[in-house]
Automatic annotation (TrEMBL):
<feature type="signal peptide">
    <location>
        <begin position="1"/>
        <end position="26"/>
    </location>
</feature>
<keyword id="KW-0418">Kinase</keyword>
<keyword id="KW-0808">Transferase</keyword>
<dbReference type="Pfam" id="PF00139">
    <property type="entry name" value="Lectin_legB"/>
</dbReference>
<keyword id="KW-0732">Signal</keyword>
<keyword id="KW-0430">Lectin</keyword>
<comment type="similarity">
    <text>Belongs to the leguminous lectin family.</text>
</comment>
<dbReference type="InterPro" id="IPR050258">
    <property type="entry name" value="Leguminous_Lectin"/>
</dbReference>
<dbReference type="GO" id="GO:0016301">
    <property type="term" value="F:kinase activity"/>
</dbReference>
<keyword id="KW-0675">Receptor</keyword>
<dbReference type="GO" id="GO:0030246">
    <property type="term" value="F:carbohydrate binding"/>
</dbReference>
<protein>
    <submittedName>
        <fullName>L-type lectin-domain containing receptor kinase S.4</fullName>
    </submittedName>
</protein>
<feature type="domain" description="Legume lectin">
    <location>
        <begin position="27"/>
        <end position="205"/>
    </location>
</feature>
<dbReference type="InterPro" id="IPR001220">
    <property type="entry name" value="Legume_lectin_dom"/>
</dbReference>
<dbReference type="InterPro" id="IPR013320">
    <property type="entry name" value="ConA-like_dom_sf"/>
</dbReference>
Length: 208
């Protein structure tokens, strides 16, 4: 039995064009491009993520096994004083630009995490979220919505074009096929709404 399967190279980069978010407790912000004042992006960047002068945030490029992170620069309160998770909403646009139309890299994710460096995180199938050792550890305190363009059997991925809810692990707690949307086909608008009182998460995507 063969124990290693060759992975397709990572052959795309991502452009995050626009982001707006709000938390029920009245913390609200909008990015109309990420260039920021005086050319300083108002984001905490890590890995090879960079902001172009026109305000586009590029997370990765065509070279294999690279990752990029971009986080809102200030901590956000996500628990009410009485311990209830706050409601939040966000809307953003991401474009995957594959070098070859049918051959994508591994994907991207919306992340809420205690540390913007996501220490120890690895590229490729780890989506810049976890390491092999940290995957599944409850002390990660990482919530992510993954937009996954490669089927990784080690994490039980349902196909090579899906959205998953990740709680401390790349083995998604819930996942759904992105069909009929192809995550690699162009500008994808994403809405993520969480109702803290109802504990209801709603993720919607649309190909522009
Ligand atoms: C950066 O974001 C923080 C948090 O929202 C805000 O307080 C600050 O004014 C922003 N700075 C710039 C230069 O936009
Ligand atoms: C991608 O970025 C890395 C790090 O900046 C760089 O070394 C590499 O040459 C870039 N690849 C391409 C294809 O531009
Ligand atoms: C927690 O506090 C919020 C206001 O901050 C309130 O709306 C909510 O009902 C409270 N939840 C519980 C379980 O007490
Ligand atoms: C989980 O992470 C904590 C803190 O980083 C570490 O102490 C612990 O050993 C990890 N557990 C496992 C099973 O790797
Ligand atoms: C999903 O998360 C919930 C809450 O932590 C847990 O009870 C459930 O077992 C998880 N399901 C899977 C398939 O991981
Ligand atoms: C989920 O969000 C979409 C888009 O905003 C909306 O059309 C739909 O009604 C929502 N579903 C639920 C169950 O809230």
């Amino acid at each position: 039995m063969s124990s290693s399967k060759p992975k397709p190279p990572i052959l795309f980069f991502l452009l995050l064009l626009f982001l707006l978010a709000s938390l029920a407790a009245s913390q609200e912000f909008t990015y109309k491009g990420f260039a920021g004042g005086g050319g300083n992006p108002n984001l905490t960047l890590n890995g090879i993520a960079e902001v172009w002068p026109d305000g586009i945030l590029r997370l990765t490029n065509e070279t294999s096994r690279l990752l990029g992170h971009a986080f809102y620069p200030a901590p956000l309160r996500l628990l009410d004083r009485n311990g209830t998770a706050v409601s939040f909403s966000t809307e953003f646009v991401v474009t995957v630009v594959p070098e070859f139309a049918q051959l994508g890299g591994h994907g991207y994710a919306f992340v809420i995490a205690p540390d913007p460096r996501l220490p120890g995180s690895l590229p490729s199938q780890y989506l810049g979220l976890f390491s092999a050792a940290a995957d599944g550890n409850a002390t990660n305190h990482v919530f992510a919505i993954e937009f996954n363009t490669v089927q990784d059997f080690e994490f039980g991925d349902i196909n090579d074009n899906h959205v998953g809810v990740d709680l401390n692990s790349l083995v998604s707690n819930k996942s759904a096929s992105a069909e009929p949307v192809n995550l690699k086909a162009g500008d994808i608008v994403t809405w993520i709404d969480y109702d803290g009182a109802a504990r209801l998460l709603n993720v919607s995507i649309l190909l522009l």
